[in-house]
Amino acid sequence: MKALVKYSPGPYNMEIRDVPEPSPGYEQVKVAVHATGICGSDLHIYYDKIGIAMKYPVVIGHEFAGTIVELGEGVKHLKIGDRVLSETTFSSCGQCWSCRHGSDQLCEDRHVIGYWENGVFAPFVVVPAKRIHKLPVSINLDNAPIIEPIAGCYHCVIEVTGIVVNNWVLVTGPGPIGLISALIAKTAGARVVVIGTGDDALRLKISRDLGMERTINLAEEDPVQVVRDLTGPDGVDVFLECSGAEEAVDLGVGLLKREGKYTQIGLFKDRISINMDPIIFKEIKVFGAYAHKWSAWEKAIELYATGKGKWDNLISEVVPFSDWLPAFEKLKQKKALKIIVKPEI
Fold it and tell me: pLDDT digit string (tens) for 46-64?
């Protein structure tokens, strides 16, 4: 079968190759991939700016929806024909503190689909049955890959940070993760402000279409004045940093009220410097938030199925598998938000 393979470390080093079609092992299932979402981390893999453990060569991709076509020995709770998603954790040690407390996404021995184990930029993928989540029939498989980042953002925004009704929430970085985080905060009853740069005009427009209280284009407005006009002198209650930009951290911390909450969601490509004094003097609570756990997946499916958020508006286009590189370039240039890829047999 044809698959998109990162075949060695370094920038680029990615191409469509013929690879063996997988077969499920014990307590695994084989899934026919219906659609795959391009994640920002897939671009990081392409440009060799990823901090997650990888094993080469590997089929990349982890956002997908599909149908089970084969069951491995020992699988009891699933059947051929089930419409499904999969968590991105392929395996973890099962023994460390994080694994024993339900946070195996933090396991030091975690192996991830599309990084260490072959992923979903392919017609078929094999995953552990225990990682599978079944989809209700009301959900269209074409757009269902977006549920994976919804699960990740739900974990970051609700399970880690915590949002209270009428909180003022500031989101920096209006990419897919930023806008999904903003939508989740809004569905929780928050008032949301989204900040972007001059290159984010399209994404800021989508933010407004999604119903955010305010968007701020840094090339056109003073964010400090705008936020003060909205919230008064105290500032915002919660700061969700989704851009992975050092300047955004300084800006957001400055706009946070005393005893506010700052959660870092976006990944930084390189090491950064942070001025800790405002965090200390304002007693800001700082969180790191990463990936997702089982509970977030179930909530994400529920959010999507019940229509609590204009999730499908985040999808810019659907492209054939052969157009993966132009799609990557379009996302890098911020000419699209979320692109779905359809596999080719």
Answer: 999 898 999 999 999 999 9
Question: Residue type at 261?
Answer: K
- Identify the helix (H) or strand (E) that includes residue 246: helix 246-255
- CATH superfamily, domain 2-134+310-342, is Medium-chain alcohol dehydrogenases, catalytic domain (3.90.180.10)
Dihedral sign from CA coordinates of 21, 27, 33, 39? negative
- CB–CB of 161/287 below 8 Å? yes
Of 160, 188, 150, 162, which is closest to residue 301 (Cα–Cα)? 150
The radius of gyration computed from the CA coordinates of the chain, to the nearest angstrom, equals 20
The Cα–Cα gap between 112 and 52 comes to: 8
pTM of the model: 0.97
Q: Which residues, 6+ apart, have CB-to-CB distance to 180 below 8 Å?
A: 146, 149, 150, 153, 311, 314
Peptide bond into 57 cis (omega under 30): yes
β-bridge pairing 111-112 and 89-91: antiparallel
